[in-house]
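Help wanted!
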Amino acid sequence: MIANYTFFNQLAVASPEIKGLWNFCPVPGTKDKNGNISHAANSTGSGAVIFKKVKNKQNAWEFIKWFTEKDTQTEYGTQIEGLLGTMGRFDTANIEALSELSWSHSEYDRLSAQQKELVEIPVIPSSYAVTRNIMNAFREVVNELENPRDTLIWYNRDINDEITRKRENLGLDTEE
Amino acid sequence: MAKLSAEKTGKKSRKEKRRLLWLSVKKNKACYAMIAPFMIFFVIFTVVPVIMSLPMGFTDFNMAQAPKFIGLSNYTTLFLSDRIFVKSIRVTIVFALFTGPVSYILCFLLAWLINELHPKLKTVFTLIFYAPSMANVYTVWQLIFSGDMNGYINSFLINLGLINAPIQWLTDANYVLGVTIVVQLWISLGAGFLALRAGFQNIDRSMYEAGAIEGIKTRWQELIYIVIPSMGPQLMFAAVMQIVSSFTAGTVAQNLVGFPSTDYRAHTIMTHAYDYGWVRYEMGYSAAICMILFIVMYILNKLISRVLSKYMD
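Answered by r_m:
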């Protein structure tokens, strides 16, 4: 099953009978022509926003710097885990803080190995169009046994239309 | 010269009418006080947003910047160049045609049948049929319709030998609409069902006896001559609830087959508005969609009340 690592944690806590029998490993990879296996996968990111028109911009910036640094994230993660129990183990975005949370050494080694293979899909104003059209294309190929290349070209048109529409709407320059 | 009052001429002037209205409000002020909490919430959370969404439908509002007035452009885009909106109209009409009348008749039949039972059994069965509309049933239905070979329906059909490979009920474009209609029918026995149940208990017993004396022989005659005319207000209420719920059905599809469904096959108007509002952050456009839906439902309600008007007292 391909899911994120907090799901494994929740499963392990919720059903103690699988403890020791189940484990997690890097995403199944694809072999390229040299025989190297690439375990590429993407992840969810988190971000913080400060609006231009707020009053205390400097204070907001100090707060964000403080909250995202390693010590604060570690303390936050351990306290959340103390409140919610092991099932509430917090998946912090701060990589150094992740090493300080209560993952065992072998688990942390596997997590950081996967992290090195991280490939991210850029987020653009119409990312929803990309996700849903690729999903539609995938389902059409699998369920209706269509030609993959034709289907992708067809849905790619929808993606491009949506990106152009959204960029015009937001006043960004489009490729015409 | 003193103004002629209502008792003398029989015709009330505007001032007279207002005074009488104020007097009747003061007389019933306990009743008004009791409905005041609900009315306040209703006005703030239902009436005000509906009124606010009319001007919002003429703007381009993405919630991070101030709304920009663009006139009728939203409405023209909706009808002329939005393919998905036209698709969603078709889906909503299919949905409403299948679930609306079928569910209404089902509510009525079930209420009628339950009415025949022993009083203690009545409560049990009413609860059993009403429970799906309260509970969150999507997890169970996702289990039943699950796409791998262990889902209940798939394993049942494979064991019987009817199919060889599991059918992707929730992601195959051909099946999503059917699956959504089935689940929607199952959870549609809601407030209208309860109203009809109550209505059945309130039919005057003496009418049945009078009917038997007059010569009513079959249950069918009893149905159309006694039961339906006595239940006019409840039928009206159940019809209104049914129209509203079948035209604004969006959550069933979202929770069951994903948002958006494969190839927009189970994409109702409500889901389309939700998509533009919460995923694409174009509030003006989704306000325009909702306003169109509101107008359509208003017209339908007027039609239904005209049809049922001869049964209302």
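OP: Thanks! One thing I noticed: Chain A has a mean pLDDT of 83.
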